[in-house]
Amino acid sequence: LYGGYYSLKYKKIKWLIGGIIFLVLSISLSLVLFPSFKNKIKYMVWDIKSTIENKAQFHTSDRIRIYSIANGIKIFKEHPLFGTGIGDLENEMKLKYKENYPELPEDMQFEPINQFVYILSGMGIIGFILYFGLLILPIFIIKNKHKLLVPFYILTFATFIGETTIEFMIGKTTFLILASLFICYNNNEE
Predict the structure, then answer these.
(1) Helix axes 149-159, 169-189, angle to 10 degrees
(2) Structural domains of the chain, count
(3) Which end of the chain is more exposed for a tag (fewer CB within 10 A), N or C?
(4) pTM for this entry
């Protein structure tokens, strides 16, 4: 993605086309050469389709993830401005599971497994704007001078789709150390 941006910015269309071809070939070859990758894709498609059609007889990890995100979105819709408060989110989620998915065992009931939905349901839109505004502030302070900081943020935000990455100590620590290193590296170059 970032390579594509730079290819367009510096008018390196051949690099962009080569990158797209490489990406398509890599995915295609992975499907052929790695049966486990192909099975994971087929399983994921089946799981999403069966979740939408409500046909699955058991609870899979993708389905549980979808349930948690759906409940988080419902909670956000009920508390759009300030959310429930992070401390009350777990109790609200338990109520939503009882209401929407009563057959789901309690040990499979999680808070939203998506960083964006977690913050929206816990802090509302106001907290979301403040939280992510402060999180991306270093990009604007540095003014995009460092070429690795933006891709680092893009990759980190990509993990937010399927995990609550920075709600756990290891995620916070990793994010802060890497972001700090990129910022310090940029300051040393000036």
Answers:
(1) 170
(2) 1
(3) C
(4) 0.75
